[in-house]
Design a protein that fits this description.
Family: Belongs to the RimM family.
Organism: Williamsia sterculiae
CATH superfamily of the largest domain: RimM
Largest sheet: 6 strands, antiparallel, barrel
Structural class: mainly beta
Keywords: Chaperone, Cytoplasm, Ribosome biogenesis, rRNA processing
CATH architecture of the largest domain: Beta Barrel
CATH topology of the largest domain: Elongation Factor Tu (Ef-tu), domain 3
Strand order of the largest sheet: 1-2-5-4-3-6
Helix content: under 10%
GO molecular function: ribosome binding
Pfam families: PRC, RimM
Distance between the termini: 33 Å
Order of helices and strands: EEHEEEHEHEEEEEE
Length: 191
């Protein structure tokens, strides 16, 4: 199982620097000069594919890293110019989950630890299971697959998700969150 530690947002400058959204609590270690990163471009939006066996997976060596607001500017030995950096837009940098400690804090979870966990409402009604976690600028979002096969997006904020555990997640959905959109017989159809 892989853990995503960063996502390439865009290139920066003409020397191949990358603007990276950091997805790790330990960026100084994960992006240290000399560190090796595995990276790949997800096959489709929202894909949970780990990239293993993905022919586009590559290995990179960090040559420099520096803060850039809430993000990181990253230089890699294998990326020497802007065109090469532009080609990596959207790529994910990953590490093997076995390489990290789960930690002792019962309120901290890695994405893969929540995937497959049952989601119920505060009154005990089953909603479904967590399929994925989206990391968006405003807040994280749980992608919950319901028993009927459709999906619902649940804002991963304390007001909506008051209880998180490895056995179940309790949500207090605002009115309308769990209802199918008008004209949709089963959830998140395309519009």
């Amino acid at each position: 199982m892989d853990l995503v530690v960063g996502r390439v947002v865009k290139s920066h400058g003409v020397r191949g620097e990358l603007v990276v959204d950091v997805r790790t609590d330990d960026p100084e270690d994960r992006f240290a000069v000399g560190a090796t990163l595995r990276g790949y471009l997800p096959r489709r939006r929202g894909a949970t594919d780990t990239g293993r066996g993905n022919p586009a997976e590559r290995t990179f060596t960090v040559t420099a890293a520096r803060p850039h607001g809430a993000r990181l500017l990253l230089s890699l030995a294998e990326v020497a110019d802007r065109a090469s950096a532009d080609d990596l837009r959207g790529w994910l940098f990953v590490i093997d989950a076995a390489a990290v400690d789960s930690g002792d804090d019962p309120d901290e979870f890695y994405d893969h630890e929540l995937q497959g966990v049952e989601v119920v409402t505060t009154v005990g009604d089953r909603v479904g299971e967590v399929r994925d976690i989206l990391h968006l600028p405003a807040n994280d979002v749980l992608v919950v697959t319901r028993d009927a096969g459709d999906e619902v997006l649940v804002p991963f904020v304390t007001e909506v998700v008051p209880t998180v555990g490895r056995e179940h997640i309790v949500i207090d959905p605002p009115e309308g969150l769990l209802e199918a959109p008008a004209g949709d017989a089963g959830g998140t159809g395309s519009r």
